[in-house]
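Researcher: I'm preparing a figure for a lab meeting and need a structural model of a single chain. I don't have an experimental structure, so a prediction will have to do for now. The sequence is pasted below. Please return the structure as tokens so I can convert it later.
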Amino acid sequence: MAVTGYGIFSRAGDQPRTGFRRGDEVLDLSGLGEVFREPSLNAFMAQGQAAWAEARARVDEGEAVPLPDVQVHVPFEVADYVDFYSSLEHATNLGKLFRPGSDPLLPNWRRLPVGYHGRAGTIVVSGTPIRRPHGQSKPPNADEPVFGASRRLDIELELGWVIGTPSVLGEPVPVDRALEHVFGVVLVNDWSARDIQAWEYQPLGPFLGKSFATSIGAWVTPLADLEPYRVSGATQEPEPLEYLRTEPFVYDIDLEVELNGEVISRTSARNLYWSVEQQIAHATVNGASLRTGDLLATGTISGAAPDSRGSLIELFWNERFLEDGDEVVLRGRAGDVELAEVSGRIT
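Model: Understood. Here is the structure written out token by token.
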């Protein structure tokens, strides 16, 4: 088992270019064509599935560079960032926390993949320090809001689908053709300031509590590498509307959260209720287009067991959050395929 995937790297201050990570080495692909000498994967990703397959078959032609010798960069220029809410257990847990005594799920949750548009400009590569955000919050017993550093800084364990080929503005992407647009997948930590979020999110949803930083893996695992681990998901009840109607497939990817060297959660991407195909179909059904470099995140992935939850607010039931100096590492693996880890330390 080894990390595999495309990314952007440089050595000793030279020009960033495309590499393919395989375990503890990076294969320099810049000799395979001009597209691989670009400082992002976007031009390559835009070429489509045939080009992706050809490149994947030729990665061994790249010159091997030891991983410790390279500096990694954000692997693609992020066009738009959408964060969904696709885990049933996560949505249920937060509903119990925030709306005790009522139905944990709002009426729309089982009808469509709930999501919001995030901030592409604050997506950072794994290893980037995370500065504790400041903003407004309103303590439960206070009459007025206060301004200051977030005291309830959290993580969110997610997968991110990276869009390669764009779609046409005004033309929805059919659910049965959605995967044609997906280049690959990265692990995502969508850092969240729960106290800022709680005060600001009604009625329009997340804003400053989410937009300060989102960390992604440095190497994008090709979706084709995960095809052997694509399995049937949970039965969806009620049956979705026609544009979302498909057999919900998910990926059998084991996931874990490590906090300061201790694994505090183990879960699986099998716990997702809404599939990537359904996320894409819903995101474009109004005519919105996909762009090369779009990042569509799943939202926090949680399982049924208490130690399989993907955020601290669930793991510690609203009683423990991140301290300065804490380091979080997210990992994922499916059989022989390992996703690039995502790490970040709070400053």
